[in-house]
């Protein structure tokens, strides 16, 4: 416990002016140190898991929790003060923040780590339970939460306004415990920013929230250059209260997760040469069974052996000893690798090997002792573990042109025995106007009894121009080994020219659909399946664009036409007719008019 | 109604029936054309509103449906089959044709109490006017695409038909319905009042003041009844902002044949409110002018206003132009006095054919930009404005020749 003291001191409000406050601080500090039951606990864990296709999943998990009483009194130990104060100011009781890039290839890699609970849609996703008396107050607190988090994480979260906020009804339920709170006072708000490019400036504040701030422990591996070079990466922050069912003590828990999928061969190549270049011919492994195989023609054979790698190869550095806060009794493992059992794993010499559990090999880090893992080249390749996902989901646009379109989502249940119930949630921008009457869920293969009603429950909140987006939530039942195709049509709105982003012809990002599978008991083997969520990729919607260069021209042209019409009609209305020869016109204009009149007359004759 | 009228109507109805049945995908294709369907009349949006309405979601709490609540109740009691809907639209066109025949038979276009045209004997027979409406490609396309402007047009025509027969009640109840459905027919109140007064039974005619006051009260109260009925149907006043608010404030900038959409896409935010007011007021300006100058021929004042509305309303479509052209056909005796008939006919064909092509280039092919379609809408608007102006010239000339018969066939200038 002694290692806590310098940090705790640093974090406490400290006013040197008053002796009383100094005394108070000292007493508080003493209390904190003396009563170990009130202290925060911290765990960190890195799970490495080779995936098919020479990919490596690295899941970093940082978890700390401490008593909610001291959190409420603003006595922060390991809980980051900056975040804690924001949550208290905005009355946020549970917070989930996601930054994600890339696509999780579930066909190749299988189920997402942590049942997809830590993953978010492309860009930024945020949802929170805010305590408020009414909807307006909740909205105001949500706005200030977004603005504060925007500053904290250097992300454009302040752009989550009413058009990007939805209130999901079926998809989310609180993961924390709220025993002392009236459920009607908690408002769930959800916002997405699919266009947000997640980058290093978001990682730095993320690391700052950790007790060791990336200086020691597994977080030393987190380097922006490597993290954002990954094929898929997701950063998540979850804050929630958890209460013990036995004594009713409540803790506040903050969990930070980073999941990244590294392409091993690309990472190794980056190490050899920072500039991407084609592989030399002698490095290629050719498929000699091809008929055209010769010295000149080579059909490259991937995955003919397991690539050799080590942490320092992939991450550019090795782990610089353990984080002091994560060392405790009884010991918990810091780094685990879930390699196939026939794959050799060589940790740095002298590393303490923790008893391996369910096929994983785990290691404990020592303070100030560098740690690395090396896996040698292995031939023939091993088969990585792959867990079949509960559901495959794909979403795409249909149709062409910039006027109308359609969305098609294909949901496939791979299980041969069990049907599953899923909740499908779409949050669409207001300028994409879906037609609910065209919503159709088709079951493949078609059901034998002809009952094609797949959607059992539907919640729909239509968009209002410039005020709010569309929210569509549907509960579907997907029978075993079948596919459900959900389609609907939509219309693309034309925006005012100031509402287009600078790169208007790139298109507008549409947030990922969120598919939630509620916790249930599986029919075939009576096993409890925890809540799982899956996100589709985001979509790029192209809208018709006006010509941005000519607002003045358009104003002038249209006004001219109106003036012309107005002028000619009013002119006819207010002037009276006389015969040409009745007016005396001695000026040039009159002569010309007379001449034209004569010509016309002769023509008519 | 003679045999020729019945024949024309029969062929017109048959043509629509054939188009609906022989080309089942035609209605869907046409309904997606921006020239025919606008956000405030589109059939697809009506279906969406109907779906939401029957499923207990308020269709007015959304940005898609902007049509009047009574339309919802009309379509919700209708059997939900395509055939019945198609028949309803054909019936509406049939009723329009009958109204036009009634208007033409009354000969109010050429003979009013204060004006008798020297060309009154050159008027086309009623069946020709019905044919001009029923076989007008614009009205056929509008009927097949099924926008709700069809109902507004029918009701406006019915109201005029009642007015030329001097039946005040039906005329203004219908006009209130048309105004309720699409707001802008409210501008026709004054000329319709004049038509009705002119055509009322001369024996029992009250003074113009009493007549106007009673009519205004009648019109306003019927309009209020419609609004209250809608309130009862939807349970809230939300529909006002979502129907009339949209026509007035133009939040939906979907392209159409009018002048507003591109102007307000490109408008600077700080001037948006100013120009919205200006564009709306601009429509009102024409009412006193036309009614004063054309007080001897109020039916033509009404026709001119229909034409002006069809150009300058916030969401115009070719259905509005079809209504104007069929009313203009009633005044066919003044066609010989129009000056630019060939030019205008050519220009309207030009805009009709190039409009869809340029829209395709912009939205689908991507080889043109928005200015292509915008240019065509400018041409379309100016051509329509010139038709209105040219017809106005012809009518004024006709009126002038009644006053000074010695000037027939001579050149005149305006001073």
UniProtKB/TrEMBL annotation, chain A:
Example GO BP: attachment of GPI anchor to protein
Keyword Membrane attributed: yes
Sorted UniProt keywords: Membrane, Transmembrane, Transmembrane helix
Highest taxon, organism lineage: Eukaryota
A single GO cellular-component term on record: GPI-anchor transamidase complex
TM helices/strands, residue ranges: 552-574
One Pfam match: Gpi16
The UniProt record lists the keyword ATP-binding: no
Signal peptide: none
Protein name per the record: Subunit of the glycosylphosphatidylinositol transamidase complex-like protein
Organism the protein comes from: Orbilia ellipsospora
UniProtKB/TrEMBL annotation, chain B:
Topology class, membrane: Multi-pass membrane protein
A matching Pfam family: PIG-U
InterPro entries noted in UniProt: PIG-U (IPR009600)
Pathway it works in: Glycolipid biosynthesis; glycosylphosphatidylinositol-anchor biosynthesis
Lineage: Eukaryota, Fungi, Dikarya, Ascomycota, Pezizomycotina
The keyword Nucleotide-binding is assigned to this record: no
Annotated localization: Endoplasmic reticulum membrane
Protein's UniProt name: PIG-U-domain-containing protein
Coarse class of the protein's main subcellular location: endoplasmic reticulum
Residue stretches spanning the membrane: 172-195, 207-227, 239-264, 270-287, 299-318, 338-360, 372-396
This protein's GO CC annotations: GPI-anchor transamidase complex
Superkingdom, taxonomy of origin: Eukaryota
